[in-house]
Specification:
- This protein is of the alpha/beta class.
- The chain has a domain of 136 residues.
- The protein has one helix and ten strands, in the order αββββββββββ.
- Strands 1, 5, 6, 9 and 10 form a five-stranded mixed sheet that branches. Strands 2-3-4 form a three-stranded parallel sheet, with no helix packed on it.
- The longest helix has 57 residues.
- About 9% of the residues have low confidence.
Amino acid sequence: MTMRRAQPHPQPRIAQRGVALIFALVTLVALMLATLALVRSVDSNALLIGNLGFKQDATAAADQGTQQAIAWLTANKYALNADVVASGYYASTQEYEADGVTAKPPLDATGAQLSGRPTRQMIDWDGDGCRTQPQDSFGECRLKPFVGAAIDGNQISYVVLRQCSKAGDYLVDTSIQCAKYLGASGGGAEGHGSIDYRTGPGGVTTAAPYFRILVRVSGARDTVSFTETVMHF
């Protein structure tokens, strides 16, 4: 009797559906997006660091603008009772009417400090009537700065405000109120509360008023920096 071996049945082939290829493509796309995000992040950080550098450079240049304003004040020390608009000088705080008593709207030195006050006063830093500000967002834009010498490509402008209630000779007109220097001469602990009297025109002694120096520097990449200095003689 002849024995026959059972022949193994061939296994059916599983159809290839390309699943591995799909996963490979998805992974490739994910890696591409991650690479683009990394490159964008590096570019953004480099741009941020560059902008900070320009900002610091503009702020450093503002000190030179302050020195220019102080030099002008020193050269005109005894002729500061009236406005000198061409030099960016104003003999009052500009926050009072001509009588020195009636309050005016506050001065927004940068254009961004009092943006919610539609009656605020503005400084015409760009010489365009404050067109960059929204309409009806301010009351006046008449203060003109002096455009000083450029420092390393940074354009400097400044405004100087004598801290008095109105223009005029405060040695003669006693109605003019000025913020004056309290010096260290005289009694009290380190002279606190005393007034340092200075010699003015004609040998008249008086306390020296303060001057407020506002400097704006426009640099590269539309960088803008503001500084404020208060000084006296």
